[in-house]
Amino acid sequence: MERESFQETSLEVMDKNSSLGAIDGISELCFSFGVVSDIQYADLEDGYNFLRTRMRYYRYSLHHLEGAIEEWNEESNHLFFVLQLGDIIDGFNAQYKVSEESLQNVLKEFEKLKAPVHHTWGNHEFYNFSRDYLRNSKLNTKFLGDQIAHCPETTPSENYYAYHFAPFPKFRFILLDAYDMSVLGMDQSSPKYQDCMKMLKEKNPNKELNSPQGLSEPQFVQYNGGFSQDQLDWFDAVLTFSDTNQEKVVVVGHVPIHPDCSDDTCLAWNYRDALSVIWSHKCVVCFLAGHTHDGGYCIDTHGVHHITLEGVIETPPESQAFGTVHVYPDKMVLKGRGRVPDRIMYYKKD
């Protein structure tokens, strides 16, 4: 999925060999954070993706993470946190009954990081674990979220895994649960599971629910999910608070929500609803996602940057796939490694 053709008019893609020092003097650095997605570690030999078009480096993904953490630790003066965008281990671990062991191996690497990690949940988390298990695991980083005492409507429900935090004055990050509506990881006897399965089968009549064949809305496959109205209402309340307080907001979710930064089959079920909430506010500057492995980028009609990060799992040993985002008062600068391109993303003008 190559998206470079329409990028150049809306954003600078920096030369891989250029130094970020050339732009550092324009405005003062506020803070930096790391991004990595789709590690999908498993103690397995290399294999192919579902369509047998891409190699997956299951075992080597842990070495890529190790390299990323070493580099982030060297940047620790300005690195406030790291965003892990989901799919931390591969679904094959469940098949071989080694999910917990593999998760511990990856978390052991993250423990070497000098900054806190915010974990997002993707489809592979739910191939390995139930939602109840994840809620009680180290992948639940909701405790790192902020509480706004005088705005109780900004406190998320326990019915979905989402929260927000403000690492620096006038900047807020919101982690969304892209599998709040899903048939993965849920108790199959629950009304929510049954409602989601009913909707999925109405949208996708294929016997294989992971197949988008013949669908007018190809995002309605089992490996995607969506946002409940309850979560969208909470999201709207947080953005209202950020508007009022003149904050800039970065939204994070495993699944992309804009068709121009993703394959059509890798979008959130109700991505349009999420976009509608974002577009009804002025504060959102960027949406960060993973899931597609190929990466992608667009800037939408409201000036919001959408970045889909390249996946570690499909990154050969000689390359890399992570980035550091440097946040300034007027822009964010992504310094990518390996497959992840450098980008300068200016905030929209009021």
UniProtKB/TrEMBL annotation:
Catalytic activity reported: CDP-glycerol + H2O = sn-glycerol 3-phosphate + CMP + 2 H(+); CDP-choline + H2O = phosphocholine + CMP + 2 H(+); ADP-D-ribose + H2O = D-ribose 5-phosphate + AMP + 2 H(+)
The GO molecular function terms of this record are: 2',3'-cyclic-nucleotide 2'-phosphodiesterase activity; ADP-ribose diphosphatase activity; CDP-glycerol diphosphatase activity; manganese ion binding
Q: Using the UniProt record, name the top-level EC class of this enzyme in a single word.
A: hydrolase
Show where the Calcineurin-like phosphoesterase domain sits.
32-293
Q: Does the keyword Ligase apply?
A: no
Q: Does the keyword Ubl conjugation apply?
A: no
Cofactor(s) recorded for this entry are:
Mg(2+)
Q: What is its EC number?
A: 3.6.1.13, 3.6.1.16, 3.6.1.53
Keywords associated with the record? Acetylation, Hydrolase, Metal-binding, Zinc
What CDD domains does this protein's entry cite?
Answer: MPP_Nbla03831
* Family that this chain belongs to: Belongs to the ADPRibase-Mn family.
Note the subunit structure. Monomer.
The function of this protein is: Hydrolyzes ADP-ribose, IDP-ribose, CDP-glycerol, CDP-choline and CDP-ethanolamine, but not other non-reducing ADP-sugars or CDP-glucose. May be involved in immune cell signaling as suggested by the second-messenger role of ADP-ribose, which activates TRPM2 as a mediator of oxidative/nitrosative stress.
Q: What is this protein called?
A: Manganese-dependent ADP-ribose/CDP-alcohol diphosphatase
Species annotation: Phascolarctos cinereus (Koala)
Q: What is the lineage of its organism?
A: Eukaryota, Metazoa, Chordata, Craniata, Vertebrata
